[in-house]
Design goal:
Length: about 350
């Protein structure tokens, strides 16, 4: 993939500039080592275009190396679709300074060089506080990508109302890397949520499974939201006990798909829409329509940094009401079903 960031080079080696400047909204953000390879192609070393490893940065065996510049361009390109899903929310970023084959870490605190113009949120935690980045504009998204933040994980509540989530997430986690059980479980969950009067939005995770999210009105606390999600999962598992389970222990699942509701607890996160995953081919967590979930050509890694923008432009969640739902009516309907 060619480097597409805009701006002027400010130095570098024979294979490419050591720095570039990228225009992101109304700001210019400096990108360090733009040709640093984050997702190697076959036979490519640490830097594309003849850097540390002497690789050519091109496609080998049908797969190109992806550089930091490519990661930056991905996030700059999808920003108009991604930002509405993460604005105002504390973020945790998954960083890979040496590329996806090297050491990585989850970072909650803003980095030391976090710019003054970028938003942040100081959130309580056991024994103190943590200051999370909050990504409200394209420039912040690009800055974090320059930090080799490959994957973004968002809070299910907003920074100004941390105790009251406005998203509920079901994580459909298959026992094996097989999307057919995920598809079947997702469609059953969709039907159940419809019975409860809760519009839902599916998203491929870019890994093995699918997230199904529900927009809430933000008036119910984490414990009650998680309890509701647990009860929904219990009803769903009872409808298909041979294929679905709510067992947290892997050895107790018996090869069944796990209906994971733990992301709804306080302080937990879920992968953000349009986030790149640290897997071969740079797959992307991608919003999809329910018709696409039914399409057997679709799987958890159908979209990557090379084709996700086309999917984003279709706005697959446009039919989901923007206004979040109260859980009270849904809880009463669920009680009647139990």
């Amino acid at each position: 993939m060619p480097t597409r960031g805009r701006g002027r080079a400010t130095g570098g080696d024979p294979g490419g500039p050591a720095e570039t400047e990228v225009r992101a909204g109304d700001r210019t953000v400096r990108i360090h080592r733009p040709y640093k390879v984050l997702f190697p192609g076959d036979g490519v070393g640490a830097d594309a275009h003849g850097g540390d490893g002497g690789g050519d940065g091109g496609a080998v065996g049908g797969r190109s190396a992806l550089t930091k510049a490519d990661l930056v361009e991905h996030y700059r390109s999808v920003a108009r679709y991604m930002l509405p899903e993460i604005k105002g929310r504390p973020l945790t970023v998954e960083r890979y300074p040496d590329g996806v084959g090297g050491p990585h870490f989850m970072q909650k605190n803003v980095p030391g060089n976090y710019p003054d113009w970028a938003h942040r949120a100081e959130m309580p935690k056991k024994g103190g506080t943590v200051t999370h980045p909050v990504c409200d504009d394209t420039a912040t998204l690009v800055f974090l990508a320059d930090q080799a933040s490959v994957t973004f994980h968002r809070s299910l509540s907003r920074a100004d109302r941390p105790d009251f989530p406005d998203r509920l997430v079901f994580d459909l986690d298959p026992a094996r890397d097989d999307f057919e059980p995920v598809r079947a479980a997702a469609l059953l969950l969709h039907d159940l949520l419809d019975e409860l009067g809760l519009p839902s939005a599916p998203m491929t995770t870019g890994s093995k499974g699918l997230h199904v999210s529900v927009r809430l009105d933000g008036r119910t606390g984490h414990d009650e939201v998680r309890a509701f999600a647990r009860d929904v999962a219990g009803v769903l598992a009872a409808r298909d006990p041979d294929r679905l389970t709510t067992e947290q222990r892997t050895d107790a699942r018996g090869g069944r798909l796990y209906l994971d509701i733990q992301r709804n607890a306080y302080g937990q996160t879920a992968v953000a829409p349009f986030s790149v995953r640290a897997r071969e081919g740079a797959p992307v967590a991608t919003p999809v329509s329910w018709d696409q979930v039914r399409d057997r050509a679709v799987n958890a890694r159908s979209w990557t940094v090379t084709n996700v923008l086309e999917q984003a432009r279709t706005r697959p969640w446009s039919g989901v009401p923007a206004r979040g739902r109260a859980l009270g009516p849904a809880r009463r309907r669920l009680t009647a079903l139990s």
